[in-house]
């Protein structure tokens, strides 16, 4: 089967139309969506896109498939829970996006009669009270403690009131509930996903793409959940069926900045394609049950390593806050764009993990956390501190100017804000209720923020058109009934409704743009107010000096400890490094040819080789590996990099064709 057929599934125009609609929606919901390394995506052949962390429920797969479609024109079929696939709107949307349903045990749980508790000696033994284990439960089935989200596999059923688990419950919530005794519980049979695996094998063997979140469900934790082995079984099973299909596994990191908040940011990072070791496939095919288990385990290790290279993980929330604070305080010689911020943060995580027991790091951690607490007590952000103390006359002028500007902007926003307010209220109320319900049913979520963004988008997507259609029809009714400006006809009514609906959407978008600008300015008012307060002038000055000291201490510490973690940093700083591992930036053949010189020239906006944390890397532009290092001027740049500009222009023109 040729590649064109692979890339032209039935109703692909529906897929691309839905993707385009959500592209517009996400451009409104997110302030910025950036991607790195998309040039690595193979343009032909089967691919399993393995994405993590799964931090934004239904938004995650849509964001990923839109970026893949835009960057490589590949169409991805994501795996989706059967329970979600059966829901009216989500199911309809999933079928249009070529999703493949997969059964999950937690979706088939049924409430059982009686209550259960732990055995006093062995936690794998469950004692029933008024239960009927022999009729309601089955060996290799599952039992779950109600409200804990935790499941345990049944190893043996001894009687109606006693059974043995294969392994004890893991979650603290399940253990504490069972320890109290008389816990409500649910049971489920093992789910048969053989049909799903068969569909996946066929899909990949024909050259299509699969998308999967190997953590299983979405969550809001700071580290990855244990990966499910299904992705390895899919890869090994496909290669066992079609050894020459050329299957690749593509790791993909979803790195959100406040995923549940409106107008937040996200960076999507594509790693290097992973080729499955032929020895793993051979072991999977010829090794029997033990061989399958061993090969799956080895491949899962490779997949985990690949995912860790494109994600940022911390053991707890405090460490994440510390890393983010350190990232803000550290001052490299060049500005680092959003698309490389994740790599920057990942290096900080690695450095902290390696040196967290160093006395200097411990002391700096204490000072940074104290600084964060002072910021919170004053209601300030870190970026507001350097300019918080100024001449009072200048502060007063700026305060009055910004206040008047904000007032004017918000007056312009009032009509659109009032019209859109029912949507805002509905999104807020419904998303919080869904989050509360998800938290009660989960053992891994912290605050269930992973479902908030999804429900905000879904509610707005359904309610906004309905509400604005109602507004336009109401306006049309009053215009034709009471104003008598024109004679009524159904065609005129339809045209008026369409025009007014478009006008309402345009007004709402203008409100968003103007309001966002006004909100950014509003956030800067409080530091100006504090700067005019005699009671806070000394506090702000002390905070500014403390920040300067932290910046100096952190920079010195990074410069000192960096070479121990990355040995070639010292050589790089001295300009003697002969080779370096590249960090590719996003490649785009559609870029303006006028930007070609700047992509080769040293006069870029940033250079990670100037940053000690990154100094083992040379920034390159896409797969052509065109270095930014060199001298200014087109000819010097070409000589330094060994790139023929005429050849490079010809290549890019060919890509445009």
Automatic annotation (TrEMBL):
<keyword id="KW-0808">Transferase</keyword>
<feature type="transmembrane region" description="Helical">
    <location>
        <begin position="457"/>
        <end position="478"/>
    </location>
</feature>
<dbReference type="GO" id="GO:0008654">
    <property type="term" value="P:phospholipid biosynthetic process"/>
</dbReference>
<keyword id="KW-0812">Transmembrane</keyword>
<dbReference type="GO" id="GO:0016287">
    <property type="term" value="F:glycerone-phosphate O-acyltransferase activity"/>
</dbReference>
<protein>
    <submittedName>
        <fullName>Glycerol-3-phosphate O-acyltransferase 1</fullName>
    </submittedName>
</protein>
<dbReference type="InterPro" id="IPR002123">
    <property type="entry name" value="Plipid/glycerol_acylTrfase"/>
</dbReference>
<keyword id="KW-0012">Acyltransferase</keyword>
<feature type="region of interest" description="Disordered">
    <location>
        <begin position="624"/>
        <end position="645"/>
    </location>
</feature>
<dbReference type="Pfam" id="PF01553">
    <property type="entry name" value="Acyltransferase"/>
</dbReference>
<feature type="transmembrane region" description="Helical">
    <location>
        <begin position="12"/>
        <end position="30"/>
    </location>
</feature>
<feature type="compositionally biased region" description="Polar residues">
    <location>
        <begin position="629"/>
        <end position="645"/>
    </location>
</feature>
<keyword id="KW-1133">Transmembrane helix</keyword>
<feature type="transmembrane region" description="Helical">
    <location>
        <begin position="490"/>
        <end position="514"/>
    </location>
</feature>
<dbReference type="GO" id="GO:0004366">
    <property type="term" value="F:glycerol-3-phosphate O-acyltransferase activity"/>
</dbReference>
<dbReference type="InterPro" id="IPR052744">
    <property type="entry name" value="GPAT/DAPAT"/>
</dbReference>
<keyword id="KW-0472">Membrane</keyword>
<feature type="domain" description="Phospholipid/glycerol acyltransferase">
    <location>
        <begin position="48"/>
        <end position="257"/>
    </location>
</feature>
């Amino acid at each position: 089967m040729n590649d064109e057929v692979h890339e032209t599934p039935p109703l692909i125009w529906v897929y691309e139309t839905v993707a385009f609609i959500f592209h517009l929606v996400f451009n409104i919901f997110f302030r910025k969506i950036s991607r790195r390394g998309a040039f690595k995506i193979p343009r032909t052949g089967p691919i399993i896109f393995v994405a993590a962390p799964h931090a934004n429920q239904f938004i995650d797969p849509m964001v990923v498939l839109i970026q893949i479609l835009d960057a490589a024109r590949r169409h991805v079929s994501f795996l989706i829970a059967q329970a979600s696939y059966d829901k009216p709107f989500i199911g309809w949307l999933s079928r249009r996006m070529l999703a493949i349903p997969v059964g999950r045990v937690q979706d088939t749980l049924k409430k059982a009669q009686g209550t259960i508790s732990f055995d006093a000696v062995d936690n794998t033994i469950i004692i029933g009270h008024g239960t009927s284990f022999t009729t309601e439960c089955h060996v290799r089935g599952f039992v779950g403690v109600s409200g804990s989200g935790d499941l345990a596999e049944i190893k043996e059923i001894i009687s109606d009131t006693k059974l043995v688990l294969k392994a004890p419950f893991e979650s603290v919530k399940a253990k504490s509930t069972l320890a109290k005794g008389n816990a409500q519980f649910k049971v489920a049979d093992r789910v048969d996903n053989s049909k799903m695996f068969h569909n996946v094998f066929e899909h990949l063997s024909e050259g299509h793409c699969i998308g999967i979140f190997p953590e299983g469900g979405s969550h809001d934790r700071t580290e990855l959940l244990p990966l499910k082995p299904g992705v390895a079984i899919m890869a090994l099973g496909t290669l066992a069926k079609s050894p020459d299909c050329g299957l690749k596994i593509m790791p993909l990191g979803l790195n959100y900045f406040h995923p549940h908040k409106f107008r937040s940011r996200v960076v999507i990072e594509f790693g290097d394609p992973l080729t499955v070791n032929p020895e793993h496939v051979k072991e999977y095919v010829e090794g029997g049950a033990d061989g399958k288990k061993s090969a799956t385990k080895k491949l899962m290790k490779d997949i985990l390593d690949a995912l860790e290279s494109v994600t940022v993980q911390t053991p707890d929330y405090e460490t994440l806050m510390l890393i983010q604070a350190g990232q803000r305080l550290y001052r490299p010689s060049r500005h680092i764009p959003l698309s490389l911020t994740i790599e920057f943060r990942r290096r900080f995580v690695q450095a902290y993990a390696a040196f967290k027991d160093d006395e200097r790091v411990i002391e700096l951690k204490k000072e940074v956390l104290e600084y964060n607490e002072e910021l919170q007590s004053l209601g300030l952000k870190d970026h507001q501190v350097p300019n918080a103390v100024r001449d009072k006359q200048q502060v007063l002028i700026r305060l009055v100017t910004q206040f008047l500007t904000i007032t004017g902007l918000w007056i312009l926003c009032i009509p659109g804000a009032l019209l859109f307010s029912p949507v805002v209220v509905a999104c807020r109320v419904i998303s919080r209720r869904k989050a509360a319900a998800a938290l009660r049913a989960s053992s891994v979520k912290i605050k269930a923020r992973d479902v908030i963004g999804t429900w905000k988008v879904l509610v707005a997507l359904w309610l906004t058109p309905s509400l604005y259609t109602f507004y336009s029809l109401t306006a049309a009714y009053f215009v034709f009934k009471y104003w008598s400006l024109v004679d009524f006809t159904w065609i005129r009514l339809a045209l008026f409704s369409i025009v007014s609906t478009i006008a309402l959407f345009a007004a709402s978008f203008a409100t968003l743009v103007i309001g966002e600008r006004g909100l950014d300015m509003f956030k800067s008012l409080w530091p100006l107010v504090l700067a005019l307060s005699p009671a806070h002038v000394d506090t702000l000055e002390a905070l500014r000096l403390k920040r300067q000291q932290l910046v100096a201490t952190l920079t010195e510490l990074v410069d000192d400890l960096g070479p121990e973690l990355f040995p070639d940093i010292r050589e790089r700083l001295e300009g003697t490094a002969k080779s370096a591992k590249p960090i590719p930036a996003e490649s785009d053949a559609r870029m303006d040819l006028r930007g070609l010189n700047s992509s080769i020239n040293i006069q870029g906006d940033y250079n990670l080789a100037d940053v000690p944390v990154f100094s083992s890397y040379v920034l390159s532009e896409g797969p052509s590996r065109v270095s930014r290092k060199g001298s200014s001027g087109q000819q010097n740049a070409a000589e330094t990099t060994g790139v023929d500009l005429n050849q490079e222009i010809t290549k890019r023109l060919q890509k445009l064709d």
